[in-house]
Write a structure and sequence with these properties.
Elements (H helix, E strand, L loop, with lengths): L1 H9 L3 H22 L4 H49 L6 H19 L21 E6 L2 E6 L12 H9 L4 H18 L3 H6 L1 H32 L9 H10 L6 H10 L3 H26 L13 H35 L6 H21 L4 H19 L2 H32 L7 H29 L6 H9 L5 H8 L5 H23 L1 H7 L8 H10 L1 H11 L4 H15 L6 H4 L5 H7 L2 H5 L19 E4 L2 E5 L5 E3 L3 E2 L4 H10 L6 E3 L2 E3 L15 E2 L2
Antiparallel strand pairs: 1-2, 3-4, 3-9, 4-5, 5-6, 7-8
Helix pairs in contact: 1-2, 3-4, 3-15, 4-15, 6-13, 6-14, 6-15, 6-18, 8-9, 8-11, 8-16, 9-11, 11-12, 12-13, 12-14, 13-14, 13-15, 16-17, 16-19, 18-19, 21-27, 22-27
């Protein structure tokens, strides 16, 4: 009432308004103080509590800094040891296996060598609730405190809460792997993809990646379901483990990551087609495994029992697989196209730092956008990388081209070695491991048989339609090279809430360790055992193959014919629209589209009309990226198969044979740095003699 009178009187005079407002505020403050009287003792306790809180925050900050320092020191030690191994030419252990060993050592020290004194302020109280709440409000002497759920602690670890907290500090949130560490690895795989050998074996790669992964998933799932049933019969199963869990395990463990084998393949210069089959399968296989595991999780039959078979639910899961994969693919390609258009129609190339930053952010945001839309970021960022390499790369300035390649190469190297170091650390720091000997033995057997069911039957079927056969020793090598790595680990650690998922995660750690150390370390011996040629000069090998009539026809049909329509459409329409390269659209579009063609064609395309050559030859090689010198005549080819002599004249009779030769010379350099492909041009190769044409770089 008094407050209302004050407001009414303040309307009469501006001078009294300010006075009454001050009186009102003073009254409210006095009333607040009177309502909550505090004694000097309470004020002293409150001050001490604030000091303790600040001290704990400072200690937590120091602990977090020390945890990150551990991983940085692990990477530093790994890099120095890698240099020593490369200097001494040690091939029995790859850098990823070395990172895992260092992670294991640090994990043992943290688990058994360091103990944190117990905090005397820790209090244990009991209350009965039906479920563990994510957030808990605790009333302590009239003050409410908020506590968050960190995880379940077994009864025998109640007295070791501080040690558990220290180990939990070095256990990262699984979303860190998916949102921060995986995107640069997957993007780099697509951004550094070498096209000629990949497209030459595209049919086989797609068969291994799609059909092979599905076959492997179901073979492993069925075998593991039999193992789980056996465990239940002998009373070795400590929780629920359904058939869908077995299929989910088959999906996540079917993702291959043969980085160790591929690095050794490059160093020893193994056959390029074998390299392309393994690399192409691993790139697409990861994407298929992610979508397949999501589809299995989404399997929900009608009714109370969600683990029974139902045809409609199976069809829904299959439809989700197709929808998620196609949606992720479209989103990744669309992001790459938008980036290409932005870099083409703006002057960003005049500001190289802004250009590189935009490229980096657009590429990374593809993963997050796909995940936010309910798609799969792995698929989206993979095809975004392929699109960026094919189109956007041509629009970048030379400085930004170098920066983007080096940036993602560096991020890929650091992220991959960080993950493998963390794998070794997690073996001892993870709090909820479930190691079951029967399940582990069954998993190793199932993984072996699942890989065999992927490689051998599909290779037999593929050889029925291939002119260039996949030889038996190649099949044995591909079977041996089915290593598990970062993707299997990331999919396993993403959900460890149930007994089944915890046992999958613990078992997959052992599977990754075994395949990286044993299979990766035995690659050189396996090559010798299978009598696979090493030290093969790709250019000489291909030049010899194209001189033979049957091999020349094979190269022509497998490398060119299947993609002739796509190359023609891409070269005549997509490249001119999205990049500064390719023929002007005014020469390829109908006359009625003249205004649109002039608008979409950049001035650089008119300037370079006489030399239609892309600028991405050191990253992605297109058909027009080859110049061959035959005596005094220079012959080049474009995507349509047309050849120019001395820049303008067409070569007629020998066009097909010359195209075969040029495609054979396509992958002139193939350089492995770290664990993934980068493809710089190398001028140090000696020119060929004999009757074969000389490659002019």
């Amino acid at each position: 009432m008094a407050f209302g009178v004050a407001v009414g009187s303040c309307r009469r005079s501006g001078r009294t308004r300010g006075f009454l407002l001050l009186v009102s505020l003073s009254a409210f403050i006095s009333a607040g103080r009177a309502a909550s009287p505090s004694s000097p003792q309470e004020e002293e306790d409150s001050g001490m509590e604030n000091i303790v809180t600040e001290k704990r925050a400072e200690e937590s900050h120091r602990q977090d800094s020390a945890d990150l320092l551990i991983f940085i020191l692990l990477l530093t030690l790994t890099i120095l040891t890698i240099w020593l191994f490369k200097h001494r030419r040690f091939r029995f252990l790859h850098e990823t296996g070395l990172a895992m060993i260092y992670g294991l050592i640090v994990g043992v020290i943290l688990r058994y060598g360091i103990h944190v004194p117990r905090d005397v302020s820790t209090a244990s109280m009991s209350c009965f609730v039906n479920a563990s709440p994510a957030t808990l409000l605790v009333n302590v002497s009239g003050k409410f405190y908020e506590y968050t759920l960190k995880g379940e602690i077994s009864a025998n670890e109640v007295n070791d809460v501080q040690d558990n907290e220290m180990l939990r500090k070095v256990t990262f949130d699984p979303e860190v792997f998916f949102n921060i560490l995986l995107p640069p690895i997957i993007f780099h795989a697509g951004y550094s993809l070498k096209r000629r050998h990949f497209f030459r074996n595209m049919g086989s790669i797609l068969a291994y990646a799609f059909m092979g992964t599905v076959v492997s998933c179901f073979v492993i799932g069925l075998l593991m379901y039999g193992c789980v049933m056996l465990m239940k019969q002998v009373d070795q199963l400590g929780g629920d483990f359904f058939f869908t869990d077995c299929l989910f395990y088959g999906a996540i463990v079917s993702a291959t990551d043969p980085v160790t084998v591929l690095a050794i393949f490059h160093e020893l210069q193994v056959d390029a087609d074998l390299y392309a089959l393994l690399f192409g399968e691993s790139v697409l296989n990861d994407a298929v495994a992610v979508v397949l595991s999501s589809s299995i999780v989404a399997y929900q039959p009608q009714g109370d029992n969600s683990h029974t078979f139902e045809a409609m639910a199976l069809l829904k899961s299959f439809g989700m697989f197709l929808g998620v994969f196609s949606g992720s693919f479209s989103l990744g390609v669309a992001t790459g196209v938008v980036t290409a258009l932005v870099t083409k129609f703006t002057k960003l190339r005049d500001f190289q730092l802004l250009e590189t930053a935009l490229f980096f952010l657009m590429s990374w945001s593809t993963f997050l956008l796909a995940e936010a839309c309910g798609f799969t970021g792995v698929v989206a960022v993979l095809f975004c990388g392929i699109t960026q390499a094919h189109y956007t790369y041509n629009n970048l300035s030379p400085e930004s081209q170098d920066r983007t390649k080096q940036l993602f190469e560096l991020l890929n190297f650091l992220a991959e070695n960080f993950i493998f170091s963390y794998m070794g650390l997690t073996l001892f720091t993870f709090q909820n491991h479930v190691f079951n000997p029967m399940f582990i033995v069954g998993a190793f057997l199932a993984v072996f048989l699942g890989r065999a069911a992927n490689i051998y039957p599909l290779s037999f079927l593929l050889n029925l339609g291939r002119r260039y056969k996949i030889r038996s020793n190649f099949q044995h090598m591909m079977m041996f090279a089915g290593l598990r790595g970062a993707m299997t680990f990331a999919l396993s650690i993403r959900d460890t809430a149930t007994y089944a998922r915890q046992m999958m995660f613990s078992t997959n750690l052992l599977v990754v360790f075994f395949t990286v150390w044993v299979c990766g370390g035995g690659t050189t011996q396996m090559l010798s055992c299978q009598r696979i040629r090493v030290g093969v000069d790709t250019d000489q090998d291909n030049s010899m193959s194209v001189t033979d009539g049957s091999e020349r026809r094979s190269t022509k049909q497998e490398s060119v014919w299947l993609f002739r329509i796509w190359y023609t459409f891409d070269h005549n329409y997509l490249k001119p629209i999205l990049t500064h390269s390719g023929p002007p659209l005014t020469t390829t579009l109908p006359p009625c589209c003249g205004p649109l063609a002039r608008f979409l064609t950049s001035p650089q395309a008119f300037e370079n009309e006489c030399q239609l050559k892309d600028d991405d030859s050191d990253l992605i090689l297109t058909d027009g990226d080859i110049n061959l010198t035959y005596g005094d005549v220079t012959v080049s080819t474009d995507a349509t198969g047309a050849h120019t002599s001395s820049g303008r004249g067409f070569v007629g009779a020998g066009a097909a044979d010359e195209l075969d030769r040029e495609l054979a010379y396509g992958d002139h350099e193939l350089v492995m740095r770290g664990t993934r492909l980068v493809l710089p041009m190398d001028d140090s190769e000696p020119p060929f003699t004999d009757s074969h044409p000389h490659l002019r770089m």
